[in-house]
Amino acid sequence: SDSSDGDVLIIDEAQRTYEKGRVVIRGEPPLTDHESNLIIEQMQKRNNPVIVLLIGHNQHINRGERGAKAWLESAEKYGWDVFISDETLSLSEFNDERENWVKHPLRKKSIHGHLQDSIRYYRNKSVEKWAHYVLSNAPIMANEEAEKLNEKGHNIWITRCLLNAKKWAKNQRVGEERSGLIASGKGGRLAAEGIFPGLKPSIADWMLSPMGDIRSSNMLETAQNQFQIQGLELDYTVVCWDADLRIENGKWSCYNISGPGWQNSKKESALIERKNGYRVLLTRARKGMIIFVPKGDLSKPLEDETRNPEYYDGIYDYLLSCGSISIDE
Length: 329
Prior knowledge:
Structural class: alpha/beta
Distance between the termini: 67 Å
Order of helices and strands: EHEHEHHEHHEHEHEHEEEEHEHE
Number of helices: 11
Radius of gyration: 21 Å
């Protein structure tokens, strides 16, 4: 009402706003403008409007998602004040905008609001740093973070055997704790291992059903992908890594299954989204995780080129160099 102090809109996962032309709701027309612009336009009709943005750093994971910097561009377009701390502005998310906004006339320096330490992996913040270095082609730095984790008994485990991964997760879980299989939505060749990331089982049943219910994550039968699991946590995760994100010449490359085989996605935006998807997968565990990297097709001569062992060996060897520890004998 007109007598209120103001209207406040709080947006969780605010980095996931879409670009102009994207169809957000099936059956509805495409967005006529960037989603952040449309939201600000509507809020300007309210009384003393404030928008509070909750941002997951580098977690825009879908095609057409613009990332956190979209809000700075929209604020500049509409002349809105921006309260943002130096710590938040220093994130790589804002690399392209930082110089413009450090002393921008619309910028109001905030000393609050930046959460320095994640509470997701509540026993040690190093796991998020480790994931960052892994996905930034920095194995030496990743190994240093892994050593810090190992010193406190929070090892990052890895295996080439799905059965071993499931046994590990079952042995870790106690009482009402939850474990589950998670995988990239583009991990199309995990099907050979009996893992179907595109199946998307009911997330409510998967997260809440007790052990013994075939819909439960604890049964370790169905997998959720990064789109389903983003914003949620399990106590123990089995991260299933496919050849959709692989190491080539010491760098990450992004692939999609197209027809009978893998097709390289050479767009930088596609690689960023894929790495962000794996970033989500690597940071879903509260207490511990194990990474499962398949061995691929071991037939000789090779029958299934999409599961060439070289793809998976490269991923596995790289993750070992980043400090993950094998449980395989």
